[in-house]
Write a structure and sequence with these properties.
alpha+beta; 8 strands; single chain; 186 residues
Length: 186
């Protein structure tokens, strides 16, 4: 009887470990598949899907914290897209264009690093056509999505990285958002 209980507890423990590793593993695997899609994009393929059933494609590569963080940004902000990577909201301009480029990501996977960014830090973007853009963070705000919105039309190239807040929330989907705003340097 004791062995049965120990075996059941071990199985339950391994199951829990597997569940805890599922989301980070999926996020890592998706980034690997998107790196391959990015390579195909650089080779001239138009809007290459990272996997056969994908309804999105890479639009940029973002680096932060002096290259410590490197992420492929997908087009669109649907739940399916954000499950795999940060997504560029289609209603906004692409990084490097005049206006505000909005990129959203989940607080517990790809955008968990946002909490370590500071005003003055830089973010770099590589576009599919080879252009590079450097942004400098000018503000970090916590906003209530029920009461505020992010401005799309600006006279200068701007960037907003958006994720849910607080980072350690036990329940996802609250109204608070963590918004990192940056201006383009070049």
């Amino acid at each position: 009887m004791g062995r049965l209980i120990v075996s059941c507890l071990l199985c339950l423990g391994f199951w829990q470990l597997g569940q805890g590793a599922y989301i980070p593993a999926k996020a890592w695997l998706a980034q690997e598949m998107m790196q391959r899609a990015w390579q195909r994009l650089e080779e001239g393929e138009s809007n290459p899907a990272p996997w056969p059933w994908a309804d999105t494609y890479p639009v940029a590569k973002m680096s932060a914290r002096s290259g410590e963080i490197e992420l492929i940004i997908l087009e669109g902000g649907s739940g399916r897209t954000l499950a795999f990577a940060p997504g560029h909201l289609s209603a906004s301009v692409l990084p490097g264009e005049t206006g505000n480029s909005i990129i959203a990501g989940h607080r517990d996977t790809h955008f968990s690093f946002l909490q370590r960014l500071r005003v003055g830090d830089s973010l770099t973007f590589e576009m599919a056509d080879g252009r590079g853009h450097l942004y400098r963070i000018i503000s970090i705000d916590i906003v209530d999505s029920r009461r505020g919105s992010i401005v799309l039309d600006t006279d200068d190239p701007m960037l907003s990285l958006v994720t849910c807040y607080p980072f350690d929330a036990q329940v996802a989907g609250g109204p608070m958002r963590y918004v990192v705003s940056a201006e383009m340097v070049y």
